[in-house]
Amino acid sequence: MLRLAFTRSATAARTATCVRTTVSPRLAQQIRHESTKSSQEHREAPASRNNLQRDWDAPVITYEELKPKTLQPSPDKYLIDVREPDEVLQGSIPSAVNLPLSVLPNALHLPPAEFKEKFGFEKPRSNQEIIFYCRSGKRSSTAADVAKRNGFTNILNYKGSWLEWTEREGKKSS
Question: H-helix or E-strand containing 163?
């Protein structure tokens, strides 16, 4: 009987397939990291990750709020046009400076002296008021998100942007 049991186990061992699971290093790191969290932290983790990954919506400034700021510009506040230079040739809002969205992420990492040399104005401080605008409001929203992710805290978005400005000011937009 012992010989029969040994034979059956040897046969079962030969026919059994070895199941091997592989875990990506990123997932393994996440599993290890999350295994030390409390149950409350486990419940809050997905929401926390989603907040970091979702786009951020900057507070919106209206035409009525922006107009006085353009009449009395201040060195402590920037109105930044994120359109490309060829679009800026159509016109711009008074007191605005141009910093195209295509170069914004890299520009925010430049040293202040290099920034001023390249763009012609002082690099904004992280707590300085910055208002972004573009042609229709899409790129300005993206610019606000980029600035927020780079540590800027006092950001406003003029969603009406150039199209609303020209309509309200009675200028023809190209």
Answer: helix 161-169
Cα separation of 86 and 2, whole Å?
89
Percent of the chain as helix, strand, coil, to the nearest 5: 50, 10, 40
Minimal CA–CA distance to 152: which of 92, 109, 121, 122? 109
Q: Give CA–CA dist 69/77, Å, rounded.
A: 9
CA atoms within 13 A of residue 95's CA, in its CB half-sphere? 17
Where in the sequence numbering do the catalytic residues fall?
Answer: 134
User: Could you say which DSSP state residue 134 is in?
Assistant: -
Provide the b/e sequence for 60-70 (b: ≥16 CB within 10 Å).
Answer: ebeeeebeebe
Q: Scanning the structure block, which residue is given the tokens 């992710």?
A: 149
Residue 21 or 102, more confident: 102
Among 33, 55, 52, 51, smallest CA distance to 41 is for: 33
pLDDT in tens, 38-78: 666 666 666 655 555 556 688 999 999 999 999 998 889 99
CB 88 within 8 A of CB 81: yes
Both tokens assigned to 98: 């141009």
